[in-house]
Amino acid sequence: EPEVTQTPSHQVTQMGQEVILRCVPISNHLYFYWYRQILGQKVEFLVSFYNNEISEKSEIFDDQFSVERPDGSNFTLKIRSTKLEDSAMYFCASRGASGKETQYFGPGTRLLVL
Amino acid sequence: AQKVTQAQTEISVVEKEDVTLDCVYETRDTTYYLFWYKQPPSGELVFLIRRNSFDEQNEISGRYSWNFQKSTSSFNFTITASQVVDSAVYFCALSYLLQGAQKLVFGQGTRLTINP
Questions:
Q1: Alpha carbon of B84 to those of B66, B90, B112: distances in Å?
Q2: Residue A71: its pLDDT value, please?
Q3: Are A23 and A74 in contact, with CB atoms under 8 Å apart?
Q4: Residues B89 and B109: beta-carbon distance below 8 Å
Q5: Chain A within 8 Å of B45 (Cβ-Cβ)?
Q6: Which residues, numbered 49 to 78 in chain B, qualify as contacts with chain A under a Cβ-Cβ cut-off of 8 Å?
Q7: Which of A8, A44, B77, B98 is deepest in the core (most CB within 10 A)?
Q8: Lowest mean pLDDT among A42-51, B49-58, B78-87
Q9: Does B98 contact A at CB distance below 8 Å?
């Protein structure tokens, strides 16, 4: 069964450093998402991406964040200058073209900013 | 604005008991989807069910059942004869049905512990 994959599973970085989180969505999916879950809290929407551009973003997704689909398979989230409060689990999700499709999530990347 | 409320922060029951997780939602949209996801201790989000706003039929899948009531804006989830492996955090979520980004709005989650 096709699945969303994410790398790395864990990342530890120093405050102020740049990190890139990688995702490989399900191959025939067209909508891509990043969500964040701070430890013990709910899952929060960050950004959605369709047709090579951002279709919607939340207030959390400020200028420090960017997304890219550099090739036909990867979808990345970049945090330019990490802050302590960026420590969280980051989930990638994807879904097909139809409005009736379900979003399927990757296993997540746990980011720790020291 | 869309909002999902899961008032039960934590529930603890003994194995084989039935347990119901509550979910109440708010939306101005007339067409929308409701979801339940399971987050086991390993951390991933596992899709359990999706219902659209036009379909109020209850659904049963094995030990799991869902009760969607539009009149009370609720989408409750019942586990019958609970097992230790059901221990997880369960999230209810909402998205709108029309084309577009369809971001998911999650509730705070209910941590379910099934004790042997």
A1: 20, 14, 10
A2: 86
A3: yes
A4: yes
A5: yes
A6: 50, 52
A7: B77
A8: B49-58
A9: yes
Q: How far is CA A29 from CA A16, A52, B85, B110, in A?
A: 33, 13, 31, 30
Q: Which residues of B touch A100 (CB under 8 A)?
A: 52, 97
Residues A43, B104: C-beta atoms closer than 8 Å? yes
Cβ contacts of A108 within 8 Å, gap of 6 or more:
A6, A9, A37, A89, A90, A91, B43, B44, B45
What whole-number percentage of chain B has pLDDT above 90? Answer: 74
- H-state helical runs in B1-116: none
pLDDT band at A96; cut points 50, 70, 90: confident
- The model's pLDDT over B71-110, given as tens digits with 9 standing for 90+, comes to 999 999 999 999 999 999 999 999 876 556 688 999 999 9
Is B44 part of the contact surface with chain A (CB cutoff 8 Å)? yes
In the sheet that holds A19-24, the strands lie side by side as: A5-7, A19-24, A75-79, A65-68
Kindly report, residue by residue over B65-82, the tens digit of the pLDDT: 999 999 999 999 999 999
Across the interface, whether the CB atoms of A50 and B101 are under 8 A apart is answered yes
Question: What distance in Å separates the CA atoms of residue B19 and residue B39, rounded to the nearest whole number?
Answer: 17
Output the average pLDDT for chain B: 91
Nearest-CA neighbor of B6 among B111, B110, B93? B110
Is there a contact between B21 and B8 (Cβ–Cβ < 8 Å)?
yes
